[in-house]
Design a protein that fits this description.
Length: 250
Amino acid sequence: MSDPYVKKQTENAITTIEFFHPAHNSLPGAILAELAQAITDAGNDEATKVIVLKSGGERTFCAGASFKELIAINDEKTGEVFFSGFANVINAMRKCPKFILGRVQGKTVGGGVGVASATDYCFATQFASIKLSELNIGIGPFVVGPAVERKLGLTGMSQIAINANEFYSPEWAKNNGLFAEVYDSTEEMDAGIQVFAENLCTYNPDAMAEMKKMFWTGCEHWDQLLFERAKISGRLVLSDFTKETLKRFK
């Protein structure tokens, strides 16, 4: 695999949405837009009862936003649009009336932690360490913060946001509410997801849709909130501190 993509396939009422980018699944704006649309379309598809969200490759679930696009930002509007990419995906997941099952096969960083947090039930492997690294480059996890805080609580979210150098283990993520199940291998995880998804397909879809509304109560203002947060990141990424830091990463 070398070309980035978003794929969507439905089989027996289970829709699998898969995204991929060769740079450790770090996602540029175009792929994020496709991913948000695929989630919205699956949510509106009567043939879909449950969604499985996964990434291609074996090692990394998602390394966050595209670093290449990040270092190219040179004005606040471009920065706002850039950081709105994950906001659009998270809001699409929030509004989707179907349960979204996460499949996290490996490490996930930054925006990827936000995506995992926005799933309704998340599976992972023993290799699925998480990190919020944004503070390292002079910004912060402003856009993904609400989704991460919703799963980990303010204490857990602030811990990994402040300690931006450290990967936290999947066991830590499970104990703090992000992961529901952690498996020894990808094969075992996939088998568990299949059984779980098939079971969900036997339930009343209207009941599941109402439950999802209940679970996301209090987040209705996120359309505005996440884009306000994107503006903060878009401003900070232009700071002298961040610009100098990004030069060292080039």
